[in-house]
Amino acid sequence: MNDKAQQRIGLFGGTFDPVHFGHLRPAIELAEGFALDHLRLLPNHRPVHRDKPTATTEQRIAMLELAIDSQPELLVDSREAMRDKPSYTFDTLTEFRAEFPQASLIFFMGLDAYSEFDTWHRWQDILELANLVVIDRPDAQLSDWSANLLNVQQQKHGDRVVDSPFGVIERREVTQLAISATEIRHCIATRQSIDFLLPDCVKQYIVTHKLYQQ
Ligand code: ATP
Question: What would the pLDDT profile of 106-120 be if each residue is shown by its tens digit?
Answer without folding.
Answer: 999 999 999 999 999
